[in-house]
Fold:
Amino acid sequence: MAAEPAVEASGLEKSFGSVNVLAGVDLTVPRGSRYALLGPNGAGKTTTVRILSALTRPDAGRAWVAGCDVVADRHRLRSRISLAGQYAALDGLATGEENLRMAGRLSGLGRGQARRRAAELLETFGLGGAARRRVAAYSGGMRRRLDLAASLVTEPSVIFLDEPTTGLDLPGRLVLWRVITQLSDSGVTVFLTTQYLEEADQLADRIAVIDGGRVVAEGTPGELKRRAAAQRLELRLAGAGAFEQVALAAGDRVIHADRGGLIIGVATDGTAAQVRALLDELDPGRRAVAAFSVRSATLEDVFLALTGHAGQEARIGHPSGGPAHQAAHEKETSGV
Amino acid sequence: MSDAVLSLPRRPAAGRPAAALARTLTDVPVMIARCVRLSRRNLDAVLTSLMLPVLLMLLFVYLFGGAIATGTSYVSYVVPGVLLLCTGFGAASTAVTVCQDMTGGIVDRFRSLDVPAPAFLAGHVLASLARNAVSTILVLGVAFLIGFRPHAGPAAWLAAAGILLSFILAISWLAAAAGLLTRSAEAANGVTFLVMFLPYPSSTFVPIHTMPAWLQGFATNQPITPVVETLRGLLLGTPAGARPWHALAWCGGIMLASVAVSGAAFRHRTA
Structure:
């Protein structure tokens, strides 16, 4: 059966005052998928999520989520979706348990049902020991988990997660990744936003890249990676002089440059003949290149190619406190 | 994560008016419980709203009272006004908490749980009523200890409670509106200073005829004076004339205007 998509948006526009945040967003999110909206700060991620979860009205365009129009049918929509926003929506002066019980009661559960559900969720999210502590004393990661738990007191068919791991340390991020994966395995459509390519690559089966209020690319992580150069030849240079010499010789074929690390990446098809030719051309004296490897393109490459935000590489590529993502997620195909 | 996470049924939607009303009725008690819990744990606000009216009463009775001739014992003269003063202090915390809810993200949770806006605001207002009941009882208790001796029968007490209740409701809705119209807790707090100041140029602390002529007109016709005079009339037997009707009209007017403004402001903030 060709099920209708979980989310379908066309031509969404939104301005706040004179700031044009969304300039026509189109999205189709298949039911049951894990969908990432990837983009830098200010690209329009949060506004898109707020429109899709019926918290903000679009100025133009239409969207359907879980079969409901986000404007006309917003009350019915709200009973079918959950939202965990960017800033944990919790009462700091209340305990974790009290927050969940309140969410349960407001979701239509009876007193006893809400209490049982709160206990269940606290255990599930590893917060059993902190159930009776005030949320103000929780760490950032605990708050995020509690916030996610609070949005799961009843079953949603689509859950929106706005930057679920921003500001979390690595263990906190890994726990949330696991929770999100399990949530998706249980059949819920997960729609998340992130500014981390690594996260989108890890979590999502489809990605939309948003920039300047528009979707600039959409597809599976693999499809997106294939849109940039499939492979890149990564050269480790012998010194600063060698770096300048090779950078000059490669010109606009450079797709990655790290002056401090003396690394230059050049597009290649990965064949031995081409790699050999490139090395000969860029380093005729055979002294400048100390080592090389051929790597498959990362989403970072794709992102830079699509948005041209070379200056944001550091922020986008390296989530704070995250692992050395290149080592973890690039497949090294050969090396010297 | 266990399978239990997604085991519960979906909730009914609140689309139709009848369903929205039912949702409001079931959500209001939850929202009241929340606000009462939060204010109980906000020790600063509890102390301010409980201690300041009592301290001000003691200040006026023992420091200024001797110099103010009111025709009755000053403690009897001032207590009805101190009860209104409590409301002003209580209003500050209502405005601040509403403002914090709007700016702090929790309103998004309530909206995604489809809590109707009236339930959200009524929770704040009714919790404010509960806080005010506590401070009123405290002030009355201390007032009795320092010599407040009203001569009122049960009917008059009941009527006084009714007037006080209308005033508290009106000011609490006004505070909720202030919380919705401001973008920071400081600004919300600032707006309520106007309410806290209003008892001074009224008959709360000094008889109006002792004021300069240009102020008398304002003092006579502002909302606090008829409410205070109505309470005095009921509790102490002073002549109140048509003032109870003025008092009720003021309370009703303030409340209706504040409810309307709150509704519009909430819709505007969440558009």
Notes: Residues 25-269 of chain B form one domain. The interface with chain A takes residues 1-15, 20, 26-27, 30, 33-34, 37-38, 41-42, 104-115, 270-271 of chain B (CB under 8 Å). Residues 79 and 140 of chain B are 8 Å apart (CA to CA).
